[in-house]
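Lecture notes, unit on binding sites. The following record was shown on slide 14. It pairs a sequence with zinc ion.
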Amino acid sequence: MRFEFTSSESQSVLRAVFEDGDSYEGSRQEGASQTITYSGEDITFDYPVRSIHPDLLGLLCLIVFYPFIGHRAVFPEPVSPRLEQAFQNRNFRQRIRFDNVDPDIEVYSGSRMALSFGGGIDSSAIRTMFPDAYVVHEAHIKEGRLVPSHAHRIVHDLGLARGRVVTSNQRYVSKPGGWHGWTCATAAALLMATDNDFGMILVGATLANTLLANGSIYWNRFRAREHHGFTGNFWQSAFNAVGIPMFSPVCGASEYSTMRLSLELVKAGNVVYCMERDGRPCFKCSKCFRRDMIRAVVDPDHRPNWKPYDRVGIHAFLSARPLYYGHIFSYARDRVEDLPSFIASRIKDVPAIKSDWPVRVHDRTFEFCDPGWSSAIRERVLEHLEPMEPDHVAELESWDQRGQAPRRAGPRTRLLNLKARAGARLRGRRRSGREQDAGH
Ligand SMILES: [Zn+2]
């Protein structure tokens, strides 16, 4: 695949020229590796780039087009061997040959922090702790129209000195739509980095994404560093390799912490966590449901209306095992008063959490951050969050939904459960931690 990049007065355009071996069909980098089809459209950003370091541009090409690249990549400008080396990590599914590499390219560096801001609870928590980080939000074009989001106003109101909305069609150029990988959320920040002296991209991924395999079982990311580079994730390590580290300051904390940190913004209506109703929360989906559960724990004044959730979709969601973000529901189950029985009866078998690790931060997760930034970021986070003590960490490490007693079920359900468990085991093995970072 050959890449072309142009920048005019009003926008920047990234084009992929397909060659033999490239494919318009690829697989999503997250979840069940769904097949996606690229429309062939150029990728546009309404940010006119003045300058961009060749490695950052190369990384941007790889982030956006990775699922469709065949054997080789030719970048708009030669990239450094550092980028090439990072993509030799065996966790990348394809072996891509880099055809224009220049060993003399100096390593990129920048001095400011940028926040890839999605507008939800997690990135809002980071905004609270790091008001000095430049806020970058990507607004999405889908089939020629701007996808509404409450986040646009939030970022516009900051003014260009503190934040910027960058509109792009990146998220919906493939079908089914949606970012094909969690790193796609950083594209606009990468694009702006050189012009704006960004040296660190902050993202909002929590404990569920780094150490808990979406709440199903503890996943030892510390050990995974042997195969992923020291960040514990091969994509994240590629950012480090080219001098623009990316890190989530809340990767050692659960959504209870991010909710508490963003509570004032939530109350002021400045947090978006579901956009199902014209860019606003629907108060019906599983995401809205989880947020209501979390807020019921951390905000004594919050009395959720559970009634809209008493529906088939939520019942099925609560009955599935492993329960998605099960640690969140377990902690809430034993702390929220008067949970209606349609909820409580469906999650009573999920393991209990005795200590308060879900409201603290795992101190060692700052080891996943670039050494040049980790102590400053750690210090800032610990001004806001209590670190876990050894007994908290021990209980976190014991989190495992697999040991649950089978639910009372008929023979057919039992068979389905068995199949689901076998499938989960296989998927877990295949993934070997590859897709732990589901992003925000
Ligand atoms: Zn919703």
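Take-home: The chain is about 35% helix and 15% strand.
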